[in-house]
Structure formats: C-alpha cells, structure tokens
C-alpha cells in the first residue's frame, strides 16, 4: 500500500479513504463478518421484497411501507459496504469528487428517509389500533403513495445542501479522508475554508428531521399504549401489542444505534478514532440485516408468504 505522504501529492480531484488508520493490520479479518452481514442484508431484504411482490395477500398498505423500508435499506447498504470491502480486499482507496459527494448525499438523505418511514409506520399502527373502523378509509394505497413521495421529497430536499456546501469548499492539498466513507465532517475538515456554516446546517437539518420524526413516533406509541390499556376483552391487549412489537423493536434499535454513534462522536477525544468509524459502518449494515429478519419472524403473514415462496422454488 502506498504511504499517506504519496497520497498528499496527488491532484485534488479525488480523495483517498484510509479506514481505521491505527488498526489497518486487522482490516482483512474485519471484512469477513462485514461480508456475511452484507450478504444477509441483501438476501433477507431481497426475499422480503419478492415475497410481498408475489403474494397477493400482502398487497396491503402496511406491507407496502415495509417494502419502502427494505428498498431504503438496500440502497444504503449498496452505497457504503461494497466500497468498504473494496478497500479491505483490493486497497481501492481512491474515490472521485463526484462519487464521494454522491455517497454523502445518499447517506444523509436515506438515513432520514428511513427515520421518516418509521414515523409513517407508527402512524399506520396508531390508526389500526386507535381507530380500527376507520383504518380502511384512512390508510389506503393512495395514502401510501403520497407518504412515499413525502418521505423522499422532504428528506432529499433538506439533505441536498449538505454535499453541495461541502463540494463548494476549496480543497488545497490534503485529500486523505481518515474514514471508510465520505461523511460530511470527514471530508469538509480537509478544506482550507471556514466550515462553520457547513457543520451548523447539517446539525440543524439532521436534528430537525430526526427529532420531529422521533417526537411523532413517541406520540403515536403513547396513544397506542393508552388505547391498549383500555381494552378489556381477553387477549385483546396482547394481540394489539403484538402487531406493534416488531415495529417498536426496530425503531428502538435504530434510535439506540444512532444515539451511540452520536455520543461516540461527541466524546471522540476520549474514544479511539477507529470506534466511531466502525460504528458508522455497522449503522449502515446491521439495521438493514435486522429489519427483514425481525418482521419475517414476528409477522405471521410474512412468514407464511416466505414459506409459499420457498415451496415454489
């Protein structure tokens, strides 16, 4: 592998990604579990999408929303993990300006799209449990289509300035990114310009989008919990909670992983720099691998659909 000093002499029309600068010797060992998780994520989401597509009984709004979540997971995985594995296996560390900022845009926008999809799914469960008689008239295929447009448009528009602001900075000489992926802060701090506004915009936009989604999710589940506690029919409460169990578990995991990532970045002076890098990679890999498995195990209709699919093969 070429030394970092050689990288700095390259023309600044591309960047070089240096994964785990302090522990490059064990990158090849790390590639094995990452590869297995990547295959699991792609396979599980692929099976889930095919099952929902082919099983007519799953052509309902709730499963369309789940398909949207799987599509977002697949794109996030394909945006990050293949490049990371290429670095580990083949030392392909260079990435063009365009590819770097495109990756930055997809990571920022699709992460918030996933959060927004969880919010829409929470509303779907709220209507199903708190207003069951009105559910067919509120949660329709048209509602899902409008929700999908809202999820994509809102988060793409708010996330687009992040890579634009970063790409308009002047990169004088340094082009070595001490990360496996093109995060905004990892790239923009290489610039010789002031990046205060760049960092401020990402902070405000990110927490406005994610924070508003989290507040609405908490409100939805508060109303759901209140409605469930009022159910007096035997087994009604357990049945109602079971329809939300897998969804709530995935939201909790998504929020917990994100919170851990934020805390480690805030405390990066006390934590080895390679830890946030690893957590950032895992955040783009573990939820996509976990989401379809949890739904497949906990949702009876999906489990039956997968069994039907396997019988056809």
UniProtKB/TrEMBL annotation:
Q: Which UniProt keywords apply?
A: G-protein coupled receptor, Membrane, Olfaction, Receptor, Sensory transduction, Transducer, Transmembrane, Transmembrane helix
Q: Name one GO molecular function term.
A: G protein-coupled receptor activity
Q: Which Pfam families match?
A: 7tm_4
One BP annotation, GO: cellular response to lipid
Q: What is its main location?
A: membrane
Q: Which domain of life is it from?
A: Eukaryota
Membrane found in the keyword field: yes
Matching InterPro entries, A to Z? GPCR_Rhodpsn, GPCR_Rhodpsn_7TM, Olfact_rcpt, OR51/52/56-like
Domain annotation G-protein coupled receptors family 1 profile: ranges: 44-295
Enumerate the Gene3D superfamilies for this protein.
Rhodopsin 7-helix transmembrane proteins (1.20.1070.10)
Give the subcellular location.
Answer: Membrane
- A cellular component annotation (GO) from this entry: plasma membrane
Membrane spanning residue stretches = 30-51, 63-89, 95-113, 204-228, 248-267
Keyword Transmembrane applies = yes
Q: How does it sit in the membrane?
A: Multi-pass membrane protein
In UniProt terms, what function does this protein have?
A: Putative odorant or sperm cell receptor.
Protein name, UniProt field: G-protein coupled receptors family 1 profile domain-containing protein
Chain's gene name: LOC102440825
């Amino acid at each position: 592998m070429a030394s970092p000093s050689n990288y700095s002499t390259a023309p600044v029309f591309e960047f070089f990604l240096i994964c785990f600068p302090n522990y490059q010797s064990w990158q090849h060992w790390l590639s094995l579990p990452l590869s297995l998780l990547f295959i699991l994520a792609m396979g599980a989401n692929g099976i889930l999408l095919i099952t929902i597509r082919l099983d007519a009984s799953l052509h309902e709004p709730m499963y369309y929303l789940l398909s949207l979540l799987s599509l977002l997971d697949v794109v996030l995985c394909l945006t990050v993990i293949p490049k990371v594995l290429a670095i580990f296996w083949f030392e392909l560390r260079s990435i063009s300006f365009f590819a770097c900022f495109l990756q930055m845009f997809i990571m920022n926008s699709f992460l918030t799209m996933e959060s927004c999809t969880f919010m829409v799914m929470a509303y779907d469960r709220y209507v199903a449990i708190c207003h069951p008689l009105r559910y067919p008239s509120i949660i329709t295929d048209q509602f899902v289509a409008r929700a999908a447009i809202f999820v994509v448009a809102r988060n793409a528009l708010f996330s687009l300035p992040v890579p634009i602001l970063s790409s308009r900075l002047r990169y004088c000489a340094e082009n070595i990114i001490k990360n496996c992926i093109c995060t905004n802060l990892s790239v923009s701090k290489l610039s010789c310009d002031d990046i205060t506004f760049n960092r401020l915009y990402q902070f405000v936009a990110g927490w406005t989008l994610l924070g508003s989604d989290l507040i609405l999710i908490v409100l939805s589940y508060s109303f759901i919990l209140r409605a469930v506690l009022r159910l007096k029919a035997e087994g009604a409460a357990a049945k109602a909670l079971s329809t939300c169990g897998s969804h709530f578990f995935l939201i909790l995991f998504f929020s917990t992983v994100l919170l851990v990532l934020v805390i480690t970045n805030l405390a990066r002076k006390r934590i080895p720099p390679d830890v946030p890098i690893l957590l950032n990679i895992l955040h783009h890999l573990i939820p996509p691998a976990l989401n379809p498995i949890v739904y497949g195990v906990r949702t009876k209709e999906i489990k039956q659909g997968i069994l039907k699919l396997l019988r056809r093969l």
